[in-house]
Amino acid sequence: EYIAKYPWSPRLDQAYSYLGMAFVESRNYARALEVLSQIKQRSALTRRALQRASYLRGVELFQNLRFKEAEALFSQAMEYQEQDPHIRALTLFWRGEAHYRQENYALAAKDWRDFQKAPGAFNLKEEYNQSLYNLGYAYYQMEEYGEAEKCFRGYAERKENERPLRIETYNRAG
User: Fold this and answer.
1) What whole-number distance in Å separates Cα of residue 27 and Cα of residue 166?
2) 157 and 133 in contact (C-beta within 8 Å)?
3) What is the pLDDT of residues 136-146, one digit of tens each?
4) Would you say the pTM of this structure is higher than 0.90?
């Protein structure tokens, strides 16, 4: 209401910021992105909210099998990489997933390798382990069997991974 009533207010960016953050907190990421992108002078808090909303909206689109759109939002979230290293690492992981689903195996492999080197990625046990497995399949699809074997063995050697999947990776490594 304030935005509509006072479109020339010097506090317009602040109003957009509050509204955008409310949309982020209510998990309406599409609307949050729409509102937050209206802000002309972006504070660190606004950039962090944009990064988070871009990443989470990308995950939503990925879950709805809209991989190209998800990839674009993951790339947008990477523009704010200085804001939150945790979100940056997760964005790399999911962008790799989106690339893989679009059969862009080289880009998927690059994102998963970058994810594995990202600060804090090792603490994301599930995603880190999955990236080893996924990277093996990306290399396998690119017929880089030596690299695929290394990744599959790396995955299989991690004891916390599910036994059936570990057995399957031994088969792939062979």
Assistant:
1) 35
2) no
3) 999 999 999 99
4) no
